[in-house]
Structures are given as C-alpha cells and as structure tokens.
Design a protein that fits this description.
The protein has 435 residues and is an alpha+beta fold. The chain is built from 16 helices and twelve strands. Among the domains are: 132-145 and 235-371, no CATH class; 153-230 and 419-431, no CATH class. The strands form four sheets. Strands 8-5-4-9-10 form a five-stranded mixed sheet, sandwiched between helices. It has a three-stranded antiparallel sheet with strand order 1-2-3, with no helix packed on it. The protein has a two-stranded antiparallel sheet with strand order 6-7.
C-alpha cells in the first residue's frame, strides 16, 4: 500500500477500510515499511505470519507483534476505530473535551469501550506533555481546580459524610471548621432552619455503652489514616511559554506574525492548597524550564527558588497592600524601549491566567469527574493548546508518533487504589440511630 496523508475522517474510511490496510499503515508508521527485529536488529530475515498477525525473525526465532510497545497493545478494538478516535481527539480545535458519549456515536462501540479508549489516548497526551521543556519568556500561575459540589449529588454526599466522620472523631482542622461553619450559616440563611449540632450527636455517640469497643472495629490510635478528608480537587501549576512573534506595519496598521508558537506545561502538585509551596515548585522549575529563561509570576513567594535557575524573575503585583498609597494596579505593564532590556514588551501573566480560566470553565462542562481521572482532561486541554499552530495531518502525525512509542495498560487507567484508601462505612449506619 502506498503512503498517504490523513487529512480528514473520510480518508480513514477510504484508505483504512480493512484490517490488512490498517496493519500495513501501522507497519509503515513504525518501520517505514521495513520491519526489523527489536532483539537482534535484523531487517533482512523478518517475515510476516498472517495467522498470528505478527512477524518472525529467522535470526533469533522471536515473534514480533506489531502492537507491542504501542497504545494498541492488549486491545481487541479494531485498528480502524482506534485511528478514528485518535483523529477526533487530536484534531479538535476547541478547548472542550472529547466526551465518551460522543465516541459512542462516532465509533459505534459501548460506553465502557469508549471510556477506555478516550482515557488511554489522554494518558498518551500526559506523556507528551511531560517531555516538553520550555525556554524564552515564560509565565507561571497556579489554580485550584476540580468539579463543583452543587452539580454532583453523589460527590457532595461523600464529601459531607467524610466531614461528619472527622468531626465526630475529633479530627477536624481549623480550616475545615471555618469552611463548615460558613456553609452551615449559608444553609440556615437560605432555608430558615437551624443546623443540627454535631457536638450533641458526638456526646450521644460516646455515651452509648460498648459502641466503640464492640460494634466498631477501628484502630483508635490511628484514626487519621482511617478517616481521611475526601479529596476531589487538585492543585495545578501551569507554565506557559510565550509565542515568538515579529511586528510590522502594513497600510498604517500594526500587524503581528507568529514565528514560533508557545507551549503549555501542566503540573499536578498535591491535593491541598497548602501543598503548593517553594519546596515543591522549585524542582518543577528546574525540570521544565531551561536555564537562562525569563520568568514572570504574580507576587506570591512560592517562585522565589527560581532566582538561581532563570536569568530574570519579574513579579506582577495583583493585590493592593494595606497602608500603602500608590496608583491603581495594572495587570499588564507596557515597557518602553529603554526599560525593555530583555525584549519582553509587556509584563503580565494574562496568557497563563487565560488558560486557568479555560480550566475553570472546563470543570463546569461535566456533571461528575472522578478524582482518579480528572487530571487527564487537563492534559488533553494542554495538548490541544500546544497544537494550535499545526494543521490537521500534522496534529494527527505528531500524536501518532508519541502513541506508537507509549504503552498504557488498563491498570494505569482504572487502578483506583492509587488514590483512595479504605474508609469504614459502618459509622454512618450507627449514626442514623441518633439522627
């Protein structure tokens, strides 16, 4: 089969209609049409076994699967459907995510299969994002992102149940107490009712004879590990490399020509707001940003460790300090040619803040996003942002190049034990006696 460029979904239907055509296209993408053995690096004595859909090397007598080491490994889904799903997700121009319900319509598969395929593709987008290293003028900002409790009833029940358990066992922190009292006051104002006291329920719970020793099998010395806070949000620290552009005047108007498009790197840092500190941010800057770059951030102190890494660190003051009189704060400060020593033109973090706004809007798109899979949607948004200067076939080929060198197992996607610990639920049933 001759090589061709996939420019639309119709090209997949026309050129990749059968399994043989899809396999040949995969062989051309992997080895440029000449299969080679990964063990002995032999090219001449490798032949195809049609019954096993694999190659065999006559030199070392090893079998070579064409799906081995790629995103298609351990998948029974036809390659034609995989190519369609990859094309739909990698060539999307909007910031909205490609939903599994839409994949069910486009591919004609079940919802479980569509969810498995879309998450596997997003995991490859994560690998692609982790390889990016930024240089030049870089903006940095953090955002605390996650689903909304007002939309998701099941998530709200889990969060409040975990909160009540922590109050009853005396594990509530000051920050949790403030947020709970604020929410209870809001609920009383809205409904006109008095919120039931959790302290009285705690006293009645402790007075019950033998309920802790006999009915509940908990380790009283390690209650914090058994009743953790139910996390549903994540901290994102985003680094945005500015576009390299040149300005020129044509017909009396100023025009901008982009020479090189900037890149976006998304980093997940912890689950609590306090997890974002200088000790966590400084290693990220060393890993993701080249030395000699210019960093622009807000006035927070978590980026102070970048002084020894970047060439220059500018801070934009967004908030007005107390007992200080000065002019109104400008979020974008234009620099004069005399002041612009590094070619920045304007000091601002508007670019990365616009990305954070898209992430917040993105959270409202879904009714429920599990904590286990939420960060993959942010990497999908970053991939679409980084490919905004490419045409359709360049996007498809750039993603396919990463996908053919990445293996994603089903445990990497649906292994929820990495995120959740065992939570006893018998306490909730016991408390119903006192409610």
């Amino acid at each position: 089969m001759s090589t061709f460029i996939i420019k639309s979904r119709d090209d997949i239907d026309n050129y990749l209609r059968t399994d043989e055509q899809c396999e040949q296209f995969l062989i051309n993408s992997l080895w440029q049409g000449k299969p080679r053995c990964p063990n002995c690096i032999s090219k001449d004595r490798v032949y195809y076994i049609k019954s096993r859909k694999a190659f065999k090397c006559s030199t070392c007598n090893s079998h070579i699967s064409i799906k081995k080491g790629t995103i298609f490994e351990n998948s029974n889904v036809p390659l034609r459907l995989w190519y369609k799903a990859i094309f739909n997700m990698s060539t999307k121009n909007t910031s909205n995510s490609y939903k599994a319900t839409q994949a069910v319509i486009d591919l004609g598969v079940s919802y479980k299969t569509a969810l498995y395929m879309t998450h596997k593709i997003r995991e490859v987008m994560r690998v692609d994002n982790e390889k990016i290293i930024l240089q030049g003028i870089i903006e940095a900002d953090e955002v605390y992102s996650g689903p909304q409790l007002s939309k998701d009833n099941s998530l709200r029940y889990k969060v409040y149940t975990a909160e009540n358990e922590r109050v009853i066992w005396g594990l509530e922190t000051e920050e949790e107490l403030k947020s709970r009292l604020k929410r209870e006051a809001k609920w009383e104002t809205k409904t006109g009712k008095t919120f039931p006291s959790l302290k009285s329920r705690l006293d009645e719970f402790k007075k019950t004879p033998g309920i802790i020793q006999n009915s509940l099998f908990f380790d009283l010395d390690n209650l914090e590990a058994q009743f953790p806070k139910h996390h549903y949000k994540k901290n994102l620290v985003n680094f945005l490399q500015r576009d390299v552009a040149e300005y020129f005047i044509k017909n009396g108007k100023k025009h901008k020509k982009i020479i090189e498009y900037g890149k976006l790197v998304v980093n997940v840092v912890g689950r609590e707001k306090g997890d974002v500190d200088m000790n966590n941010i400084t290693p990220l800057i060393e890993k993701k940003i080249k030395k000699g770059s210019i960093l622009i951030t807000d006035e927070t102190n978590i980026y102070n460790g970048a002084k020894t890494i970047v060439k220059k660190h500018f801070k934009i003051q967004h908030s007005k300090k107390k007992n200080e009189t000065h002019k109104p704060i400008k979020y974008s400060i234009e620099l004069s040619p005399e002041e612009d020593e590094y070619g920045i033109k304007h000091l601002s973090t508007n670019g990365v803040e616009n990305v954070n706004k898209q992430i917040r809007t993105f959270d409202r798109e879904y009714v429920h996003i599990s904590y286990e899979h939420s960060e993959r949607y942010y990497f999908e948004l970053a991939f679409n942002y980084n490919c905004r200067g490419l045409n359709v076939h360049e996007r498809f080929n750039s993603f396919l190049k990463v996908a053919l060198a990445t293996t994603v197992s089903i445990k990497d996607i649906f292994d929820s034990r990495r995120y959740y610990s065992f939570r006893p639920n018998r306490l909730v049933r016991e408390l119903k006696k006192f409610s």
